[in-house]
Amino acid sequence: MDIIESVREMKRIAAAAREAGRRISFVPTMGFLHEGHASLMREGRRRGDLLVVSIFVNPTQFGAGEDFEAYPRDLARDTAVALESGADVLFVPKASEMYPAGFQTWVNVETVSLPMCGASRPGHFRGVTTVVAKLFNIVRPTAALFGEKDYQQLAVIRRMVADLDMEVEVVGMPTVREADGLALSSRNSYLSPDERRSALCLSRALAAACARYRTGERSVARLREEVMAIILKEPKADIDYVEFRDGDTLEEVENADGRTVLALAVRIGRTRLIDNTMIGRGFTWNERC
Length: 289
Ligand code: PAF
Hints:
Elements: E1 2-4, H1 7-19, E2 24-29, H2 35-47, E3 50-55, H3 75-84, E4 89-91, H4 95-98, H5 117-120, H6 124-139, E5 143-147, H7 151-163, E6 169-173, H8 193-214, H9 220-232, E7 237-246, E8 260-268, E9 271-278
Parallel strand pairs: 1-4, 2-3, 2-5, 3-4, 5-6
Antiparallel strand pairs: 7-8, 8-9
Helix pairs in contact: 6-7, 8-9
The structure holds pantoate.
Pantoate binds next to β2 and α6.
């Protein structure tokens, strides 16, 4: 596996691969890789001839007072995970190359970026779409893989790719969970053992809502009540949002159906966690409903 820091070198390797007719799979990450990232890499490996993984803690998607400085970083461990998961190239650009002096161009997806995490974290998705567009221009992948845990991010990136005629297939991959239901996230490393136990209220709430849906409940007001009651029982939990939205457009819905995504953002102590499920698909974990 090659570890590449320079944008120019990354472009050269990608261009040579394309010229040789090789399909490039791309997994963009911010590092501190876990099994969720590894599942994206394995799928990327399966779909392409050259697997490129990037690690870049992107400063422009963090707001003032957010955890940019504290965001967990461990390049040695990440290198081992990427290698084991089949990466050919690990691209680790420097912020000074991604955002050189004079940088002033932004990619902004409008409506889909506004609610949910977009409302709680103004400017976040502008940072995400800008860096992902840059990475796509550098790597020019055939396919790029993202986790469904960041459901809104995936919807925003799909919109950007469609609107800007980008020639990349965006592949969404199922959320990977711990045995007890907690969705894997690099930010789980912030949780104390007690907080980690409290964090299970997210997956418990999703599972309960799916179970209610399965018994015929369609009213979002009643489903939301159930979700909120489960989370509010947890003293360490502070709800940011509980949203029922159309899975593609992210417009609010009043009655749930097979296209509805239930998305949560909850603070456990100082850690903000997100999770979601397509309510009609059931909760795909060991406590299936
Ligand atoms: O999901 C992430 O890790 C980041 O938002 C991404 C897509 C790598 C952009 O910085």
